[in-house]
Batch of 3 targets.
Target 1
Amino acid sequence: MSFEPKIVAFCCHYCAYSAADLAGSMRLQYSPNIRVVEMTCSGNIDHRVLLNAFEQGADGVYVAGCLEGDCHFLKGNFRAKKRVQAVKKLLDEIGFGSERLEFYNLSAAMGPRFAEIANEMTERIRQLGPSPFNKAAGGCTAKEGEAE
Amino acid sequence: MQTESKLQKLLDSGHFVVTAEIGPPKHASAHGVRHHAEMMRDYVDATNITDCQTAIVRISSIATAVHVKDCGIEPIVQMTCRDRNRIAIQADLLGAYSLGLRNLLCLSGDHQKFGNHPTAKNVYDIDSIQLINAVRKMRDEKVFFCGEPIKEHEPRFFIGAVANPFADPFEFRVARLEKKIEAGAQFIQTQCIFDMERFERFMEMVRERGLHERAHILAGVTPLKSWRAAKYMQTSVSGMIVPEELVQRLKNAEDPKKEGVDICVEQIKYIKENIKGVHGVHIMAIAWEEIVPEIVQRCGLYPRPKVE
Amino acid sequence: MIIAQQKPVKDIAAMIADCKKVAFIGCAGCVAVCLAGGEKETEILASAMRIMRRLEGNPLETVTYLATRQCDPEYVVALDEVVKDVDAIVSLACGVGVQYLAERFDKWVVPALDTKFIGGSVVHGIWEEKCGLCGDCVLHKTGGICPIIRCSKSILNGPCGGSQYGKCEVSKDVDCAWQLIYDRMKKLGKLDKLLEIQPFKDWSKSRDVGPRRATREDVIIE
């Protein structure tokens, strides 16, 4: 059974997003399952966005911020990390499981690392199988009515 | 102010008194309490009866005091502010006095967090100093806490309070003791003394203020059974100071129990002979009541004086 | 301000287990400031509840709304439309807000928060209790430090014998309020004030007399 995970990567403009660019110019192969969302800073991440990504059918989500000490806005990456941890805790509490969410640190120069993370996360989600919300649809996203 | 208390008569006539402590049991039989009381009867002048100490449920102090009195010892009823509001306190005071109990020790009480009902709601309607003051007014002004007159048979307790020379802020401890005496405390029992130097400094300040002439101060001592007990008090009981030398002495002892008794006897003798203004000793043999007679005897405090 | 904290999500879920459509109502007052029941917390909770229910195969429909204040009838009226067709209302306000919603709507109204105390921020993300709401302030006697709530025994003639090294007997993490009072009075040269015996407190101004009321005649609109 072939399952192609749908993974959303929230990437900081100053590091991960540039690293993705670099990976591209270096012609590195990495998992095509990643949907990159550019952020002004990983510190902009909001608990709600992460939860909504899962509600909307993501099988995996990760946030990638700068190396510790290198945040363009000083502490955004630390804050992002804490928020990701808080959402992971919540996901465990509500029985969704926290393994589908992760936080990474990397720099703009780390093109190969970007590719590695993309592959790593894809492999992890492949092992886990489709999100509980996608299981019925055999891996496809079934969009359910949102409140708003 | 004179009361019917034998303890007061002894203290007022200048005797060096000996009091001990009996902890009520966690069940509904007074058998053990009576056994301890009979054993101590000839060796102490009075015994404190604790009021659910460390917030653990036990036979009430008043009920236990009646058993103890029945065995021939004058009890000192402890009354904490933790479990009763001013209505319940007064009801118990009237009841205690009607049962022939004449000594009352007023305390705030250990926080319920330490006991076997940590989720209980505490009361603390009034504090220990307010309690002392109100019990004094019951006796001297014949009024209830609210000011309403007690028409007849007002309770006339010999009023005691506690002082802890080892708690902080140290400089304020003597001032607060004065506040208690001002409120009406006639005798004071201190927390267990292990740090003799600090106690001496405390007593120096007490004498400076002349407090030893306004109230009878009884020094609290505790015989320790083992170095572990000493260590526990040193690290886990707040408001205690246990010097490391003491722990080591017990640790190195061949017979720690004997060493514990030796230390206690030394302490009592030292206090009696060297520290002015101390009018007696209060032996808190926690869960070791049997040892009290031996300590009293070895300190040369036996036999106890008689009161006519 | 009033400090509240969210109940465990499982407990909230249990309260609305038999509902199909639920309104999550936040409050932009105190609980928004202490990050327990503002807009963001309301949406996160609603999202968590939807996910949880979907995992159980029993999807939950949610509506979210942020009331300016749940403790004011005029703002509660505005919710009439929002809650019209829901089976239950989850209030993310303090206990006051929950009661205002329950009073207004003939619906199952449940609390998402535990109302803890009134206090203020220590740093962002940490709050501390400061006032015991006793109705008869004594701060002028205690150097601006409240013994009613900051002393674990509410002692007015402190400190008790459990105060050591500046900490309360209850925990080494808790400052002894009376040590703080002593230090401050000493600094202000007012230690003599602590020698006065403070009389019994009039607790009738505190709880135990039914709900208290406060009135300002001059501002009541006829």
Target 2
Amino acid sequence: MGKVVMNWLLVIGYWLLGSRNGVRRFAAFCIVFVLAGVVLADGGVAVYERNCVACHRKLPVTLDKFFFNYLLKYSSERQVKGALFKFLKHPTKKKALASEELITQYGLMPKTTLNDTDLRSAIDVYWQKYKVFGKIK
Amino acid sequence: MSASNGTATSISRSERRTLLRFLGLYAFLAFLILVLGSTIYYKLQKDLMLQTKRLELEEYSKELIDGLKLLHIYFDRYRTYPRNPLYRSAIYDADKVRIFSTLKDPKGVRLEKVIYTTDHVIQYVHVLDSYYLGAKYVVVEIDDDGRWFVRTWKNIFLYGGALLALFLAAGLVLVRLFLAPMRNAIRLLDRFIKDTTHELNTPVNAILSNIEMIDPRKLDARTAKKIKRIEIGARTISNIYQDLTYLVLNHQIASQDTSVDLSRLVAERVEYFRILAESKRIGIEIDIQPGVERRIDENKAARLVDNLLSNAIKYNRRGGTIFVRLRPGELLVEDSGIGMESGAAKEAFKRYKRFDESAGGFGIGLNIVAMIAKEYGLRIDIESEKGKGTKVWVRW
């Protein structure tokens, strides 16, 4: 969500919260919930950007190539996300979809330090970014 | 008496009925077999058509998979789904969620099948080993022109109809073949009964007329008693003879309706039966209004009255009474006999129905009464109480 919109929402929320009108106060709470959701979602993006993109940027193979490898092997959203989660929690050569050369050169991906919630939200962001649903013409 | 329903006409009627029932059953079974055969034929034709189309659809699916492979590799550059005017297609992921579709109706897809036809389309499902773009199932669809369907139904109607006709013709021949021995046996029996009935007339008449010629006053008491017994026996035989003649021969002949003095007729018949009643010590009381007339065949009217009286004697107790009353429009015969269970009265008019096997007769008496009543539109009411007796009204 755009920062300008968020700022405006904060201002309106603050103003409504000060009101004595019950309806306005309720509207203020709704805005707070929306903003909290946005912050949490943005939190997932931040986790993804910090923990996935930052590291993969150094590799010669882009993140979308890995995504399409997962898609090729696991097909559905549920299975792709499940496989990614398992791999990131306990990476092994057997489970890895990267090529032998890549692993030899850059090593196997280290075990994730993220907790389950952050890891799942990062995977969700990854899926949203590269999924094919709605993109095929 | 005939062992069949009485006459040659009813033989052929019951024969025709048997024939029709058998043919009905036969046709039903033949129809069932044809339906089963047609279903199998239809399924085979459908499978044959699908097998033929399958080769074509497999080619299309291969082409589509190649396209998907390219799209998977170059998805960062190209996003256009591979299309071909010859077919429509769709891709589904491992959880059967639709990824993309150009099908007419993507909702009706059955991914668990391989090839099938639905709503004028033929759909072929190919399961992928490598899930390009996440697609596990590839569905390729072409239009079903329905020519095989029309051809199949045409054949079913044409050959099925011919087969049904053939079955029916064979059934007709078979049923005639099977019924022939039974028909011959019934005709033989019928012929025999007719001849016997005819031959019975002369001796019975001879006995009765000779007895009437004997003057009882010239006989001693013992001989007179013997002669009386002979007369009772002969009259019983004569009555049975009359019934048989009626059943076998008479009611085929057109009725000779005249204005009959029923008062005279009933009185005569009561007198005729009095000697039989006396043998069981049954008294007959009469209350006959003179001058009651009705247009009827006299012979048939006599049969009706005779059978009512004969039944009243037959099913009466020893020393009982019979009351006969005649009024314009009504004849009542009441006995003090064994009576019938409630509900049995309607059954009484069925042929060969007897409620007391110990009493003589063939159970045809009331059936004759019913036949005559039906012919002349007479209404018969029976009121009977077990152990007390029976009242029979004939109303017109």
Target 3
Amino acid sequence: MVICTPLFSAPAMAAPDARALLKESETRHRTKTQQYSGDLTVVNKEGKVRKKGWNSYRQGYAGDSKNLIRFTDPPEVKGVGFLSLPRPGSDNPDQWLYLPSMKRERRIAPQDRDASFVGTDFNYEDMEEFDHEKYKVSLQGEETLDGQPCWVITAIPLEKGSKSIYQKLTLYLRKDILYLVREDLIRKGEKEPAKRLVLSDIKNVEGHYVAARMEMTDLKKGSHTTVTLKQISFNRPQPASRFTLQNLTREGGD
Amino acid sequence: MRTALLLLLLLALPCSALAEGFSGYAEVKGFAYGERFAGEPYGAGWGTLYGKWEQRLAEGQFTASLRAEWLTSPQTSPLVFDPADRKLRRPPLSAPELWLRVPLAPSHDLEFGRFQLGWGKTDGYSPADAFLPRDLTDPFADEKLPLWAIRLSGQEENLRYQAVLVPVTTPWRLPPLGSRNAPIASGALPAGTTFQEQDDAPPLPGFAALRLLATHGDWDLGVWARSGVRPAPILAFSLDPAMQTGPVPVISVGRRYPREHGVGVEVSRVAGPYVLRGEAAALFSADRELGDALIGTLSVERGFGDGTLLVTLAGNAIDPPVDPTLLFDRGLLPALIVAWNRTEEWGAWKLVWDCGLERGDGLVKAEVGYNVTDTWKVTVGGDLPYGSDQGPLGALHGARRVVAAVHRSW
């Protein structure tokens, strides 16, 4: 899973402008590489729990990032790999899936953006890295969440007939570090948020802020998905051979 | 019975991974058939205990697995040492994987040992995959057999290669002839015919193969070539007067393993929400009962939510010279294969329709899996072969069945 939300941090500004805040934050939180191991827990409305574990490697940032995910648990998905490589001149990256049961990689088509990502409350659009340039953004005011003063910014997809499944996002940024701590997502044709993403357990790892816990709640279904990040590191050199199909098809490899 | 009790006990025990890198499962399956077949009972059972050990060795990798099985039907061999799966029947104890990978350079690997191969682009039927040995003990499971092999593989930029040397023939494993799982048309032989299968030793040499792959934009391209012993046997039936001791004919069945050479091309591309795949292969053999083949496949795949719909069309431009029901990989052609699977919050389901286009026979397969927990799964399903028994799937009408399975992994 790509951490798609290490958005912003900026010094205090006298008259902040939403776009400036977003730009400054993106600049501050940009890293060359990132790797972590993660646990993913899905709890449905009846309280039934499903867990998955994986290792994630990223090189690059935003639209030019390469990503490799390898599932480690439960046994049914152990060894399943997902590789995403940017394609110059295209919004859609090249994506491959390796299934150990088939012993070969399969190229996959861009998914329906509203489809659930591996059975979680995240959909494929939620997994994309937020690019504020594709939104009309405006500062709505200030609010305090968990004792932390936050900027509240609304983001509306720019294009008419946009591919986005959302008509509006409401972003809550911690003022002190300009890091996203909450996001409310309103679907097209609806007035109330359908989902809420809350980022917590924010740590400073190797000079970079990162939320070690992300929880996406489906406010209508009553289910939620929690992602916990462990052994996080940034800017470690990644071997060029990590983001290759040859590596994707290595069983027992990264 | 003692094995079955042990398996049930292991299924119920609160096991967890014994050490890092160790995983496995226990599974109990039950089959209920719609009809009796030549004295075979209405039901059958199958239990499996599987363990896999994976170990990183610096940049290398070692993997070993062991499988123990118990089948109520007489489809397993006695407990004999059969490391290359060359016997007629499934061994009750086997080592599906035993391999070591040594990196020669960052993107170039050497692997040797016992492992499975997967080639080809098209799912459902792939001419690049069809030459690999299969275990048809369960004719609807389509399980590949592992090989003893050496594989050199690597990548430079957008080019990849795989060179495989398989020194020993691992033959296809077929269901016992005369059983409900063997695709022999009713009426093809006199009623009550019994088969005397000869446990012929397959030829020792295996095959060599090379595959080159390239990715360019939306396109994935590949070419391959292979040469060696074809692991799917040609069956030779003979009526030996010395064996006719009663009123029922006794037919002796031998197996031949012709040599075959093949070249193929494969292509796939992403087109919006679709993935299109195609393959073509030319196969040559001097064996007049096998003959040549020109096999083409086309498939289209599309994701719908957490599911995938896959349609594959496969055909052979040259009719096989022998009874196609007995030429197991080519007898299915031409065929239309439709598969739809989907993951749900509670589990998963799949539907498969495999339709023979020439003889009008086919197979409808349905399966629903319920995840009781992350490690416990209950599956129910059914396999319904239908149509003319002159086709390889229709000839399996006696194997119509309902399947239920309990699976526990760790």
